[in-house]
Amino acid sequence: MSVAAQLVRLYPPAIRRRWGAEIAREAEQAGPRSWFDTAVGAVRLWLRPSDWPETTTGETGRVVVTALVDITTTAGLLLRATGPTSLETDTSHPTAEVWLALILVGLVLAAPLPPLRRSEFARLAVIAVRVLAAPASAFAAIFLIARSGLADHPAGTTDILLVGCYWSTLGFAGIRLCLLTARVGEVAVMPGARRLHVASLLVGSGLALAAVQAIEELRPESVLLSSGFAFLATAVLVVGSDLRHIPPGRTQDIRSE
Fold first, then answer.
1. Domain of 91?
2. How many domains does the chain have?
3. Which of 10, 203, 230, 247 could pair with 42 as two cysteines, CB 3.0-4.6 Å apart?
């Protein structure tokens, strides 16, 4: 596969389906000097969902909701990777957990509604079982290893293997959670543009508040965590602001009985 075709894969799904061939052809003709601009164009379009064509019903809503789950999953893994910080340990301040509350409220607001057709509930259950079975088994294996005593005093190769297994399982579970969101979006009723706008602003505000709170500790891991959260917050807030320009009905997946 050519570099131009790989660059097209960076674009939002609707853009790829509508103009992917044209973008790849232009990048191929222009050569390597256009590759950077093509990648930058993909980033810009991810931040402007109002410019996405609606190639399938409710597609914009599904992509935005999945992206919110992707970002919050990334934030959770980043928080776990940086170890104990003020975001996890400082609960004495009244506003210490406000950032988390904002993110959770935003995710609840962006959550798809149950399908209108009763027959689709069974399909939803099948999707959940298929997507979550593997990560659930992986977590069960880690639990059994922890209970067996092998992880009490690991050393050398055993320690490396256990740490690698732990992080591989967390990453795999995060990927499957994002996949579950995308698959559920094909069955459930997606939120409208107005609800997505508010949800994105709440999640972005929570991430921004977490970034400010984390930087209060001038440690390398806290600076890394704050920088990562600030980057994610900026992206979510830009997307949330752009969602105001989408007509409310365009992001909804309305199914009739």
1. 57-251
2. 2
3. 10
Q: What is the DSSP letter of 247?
A: -
Q: Are residues 173 and 210 in the same domain?
A: yes
Distances (CA, A) of 253 to 13, 48, 57, 128, 178: 17, 20, 6, 20, 19
Statement: residue 164 has pLDDT above 50: yes
Tell me which amino acid residue 209 is.
L
Same domain for 23 and 146?
A: no
Report the Cα–Cα distance between both ends of the chain, in Å, rounded: 44
State the alpha helices, DSSP H only, in 82-216: 86-89, 98-110, 119-148, 157-184, 193-214
220-242 vs 193-214: helix crossing angle, rounded to 10: 160
- Same-domain pairing of 82 and 197: yes
* More confident site: 106 or 151: 106
Looking at the whole model, is its pTM more than 0.70?
yes
